[in-house]
Design a protein that fits this description.
Rossmann fold, 306 residues, 12 helices
Length: 306
């Protein structure tokens, strides 16, 4: 049976999540997008149904995050809550249903990037881990690692320095190059710590895209071959579950999620700054479902789930 890191979303069942959850992690510039674009068609050619997802793609919060980041005044607490809402929405409405249907779920970054970014910005590590404790444990996390000196040329000769990826919200007024270097170095340190804690499979991202792809294919093939399931069987089970799962009226947990969603979005709209941890933030997550995270997202997306 698939497990979470401690908490469950209201009404979530994990016993029948037969698919595979594969995470591609790494800082911006490490080549994640390139590998995602190679992996999906390769998996489909092998006969697997594939869902690819990533940060800021939720219907509930994705557009709000992109609009909020157009300015330069998004506080660290609001940012953390926004990303939690996005993740939990995707967890409940995309990732979990796909796994239940037997899909291979490829995700471009997961809770590890969200935790690293928040912790580097000074958020309480315990609070952040509590929020994301309802994340499903993946079958594998492949971490594409670059050092700072290898990362900088890639960024300079691609899109250039971005305000948020350069950590300019942490070092206002500083030189953008030095800010980028300091922020990314802190992120890499945090990623290395998370890699030890969560068992990342580290891949040297300085290699050619073809070499990285070959290593990813080998690692993912081992996972798929360990517990193969014919796609036809998975699809049939999914169709049967879908036909029997249409509710006649909102359940108690559904109403609870909707209430949590209103509370979380209300907190975000209130415009918290990053100067202190909001008093309501922890209860919102921890009290919502007794899960620091169950509510952060269950509420952010009470309807469902980031």
């Amino acid at each position: 049976m698939r497990e979470t890191y401690g908490k469950l979303l209201p009404g979530m069942r994990t016993a029948d999540l037969a698919g595979k959850l594969i995470v591609i992690e790494g800082t911006d510039g490490a080549g994640r997008t390139t590998q995602m674009n190679l992996l999906k068609p390769w998996l489909e050619e092998q006969g697997h149904a594939v869902l690819d997802t990533g940060m800021t793609r939720s219907v509930l919060a994705g557009e709000g995050i992109r609009r909020a980041k157009e300015g330069n005044n998004l506080g660290r607490v609001t940012q953390s809550l926004f990303y939690a809402t996005d993740f939990i929405d995707r967890l409940e409405n995309e990732i979990t249903p796909a796994l239940r249907a037997g899909f291979v779920v490829l995700t471009d970054r997961y809770v590890y990037s969200l935790m690293a970014r928040a912790i580097v910005r000074g958020m309480d590590p315990h609070w952040i881990r509590s929020i994301y404790s309802l994340a499903l444990k993946p079958d594998a996390v492949f971490y594409l690692r670059l050092s700072i000196d290898e990362l900088i040329p890639r960024v300079v000769f691609s899109r250039g320095f971005d305000y948020w990826e350069s950590g300019m919200d942490l070092f206002p007024g500083h030189d953008v190059y030095e800010s980028f270097r300091n922020y990314q170095a802190a992120l890499l340190t945090e990623f290395d710590c998370l890699g030890e804690e969560f068992g990342f499979q580290t891949i040297d991202a300085t290699q050619s895209a073809e070499s990285v792809f070959a290593q990813l294919k080998a690692g993912i093939s081992q996972i798929l071959e360990a517990h193969p399931e014919p796609q036809a069987h998975a699809a049939a089970r999914a169709m049967n579950r879908t036909a029997a799962s249409v509710p006649l009226a909102p359940s108690a947990t559904e109403n609870q999620r909707r209430r949590f969603e209103r509370e979380l979005l209300g907190a975000i709209r209130a415009g918290f700054t990053g100067d202190l941890l909001p008093v309501g933030a922890v209860p919102l997550h921890a009290g919502a479902n007794g899960n620091g995270h169950g509510n952060g997202k269950g509420n952010g997306h009470s309807r469902h789930s980031g």
